[in-house]
Amino acid sequence: MTHADEGDESLDLLIGRVDEYSTLFTAAVDEVLGTEIVENGQFTALVSLADREPHAVADLAPIARMDRRRLLGFLRSLEDHGLLELGTDEADHRRRVARLTLRGARRLREADARLAAFFSESAALAREIAELSTVSTSSPAPAPAPSRAPASALELAALVAETGLDLHDVTRAILGERGFEHIRGHRLLALNAIRLHGACRPSALVDDLRLSPGGVTYLLDGLENDGLIRRERDVSGDRRGVTVTLTDAGLVVAGASREAFVRTRHRLHQRFSTIGRASVAA
Fold first, then answer.
1. For residue 157, which of 113, 99, 101, 210 has the smallest C-alpha distance?
2. CA–CA separation, 211 vs 217, rounded Å?
3. Are 217 and 202 in contact (CB under 8 A)?
4. Distance between CA atoms of 37 and 50, rounded to whole angstroms?
5. Are 260 and 268 in contact (CB under 8 A)?
6. What is the pLDDT of residues 73-90, one digit of tens each?
7. What is the pTM of this model?
8. Are 254 and 244 a contacting pair, CB within 8 Å?
């Protein structure tokens, strides 16, 4: 085996472990908040509101890395559930502000306690990711590490979400260069999982992505319509079985995601080293 092959295997293992951590983290956040798939940016905005002070929507938008219209839609959904109040700034009535309600603050306190358990359970995986993302000293200088350690499980979760946003931004830039900017989220996770398998049954993706069989079918329908995968009958064995493989275009998209991991490897190492250490104390 060549050194290049070893490097490829190490990177593939890193991608698989990060995807696994991302899936577990998303499920934990959705469980503790009683929501259905809160995006990373939405979560970072929500954590910013934990102090129960009014925050301008315009100031939350760059934290969430979302445009104001999409962010406002999310905040309104929280308002509908009684978790948040939207109003206007007393000093400038043109500015919309958001503030957690008592119910919202209580929900975040409960989420903090339950997320602490998640970080304790996933600490070994975080430390493995930190080890796998270690890079040689000949690589470019890393970005500055966070200035202080997270003080709570919520802040630690926000750090995980920010790491996801970093990967998303770099991946989206690469995909945009290649004409696939609209591919994101579970679609990228699915393409990466299929690439790592080489070819697989849909049932393997049920386990990898922790989705229902119906959810995987819906996901594969979209990927097939976009020309990124092929589903073929297994004529050599169980004729009722279906094998999923990537098309050339699917390989391009999965390769873009892989390149994003290469470009952000330093940041992954720094963040997951922090997460691994803090998880033990969480």
1. 113
2. 10
3. yes
4. 19
5. no
6. 999 988 998 999 999 988
7. 0.75
8. no
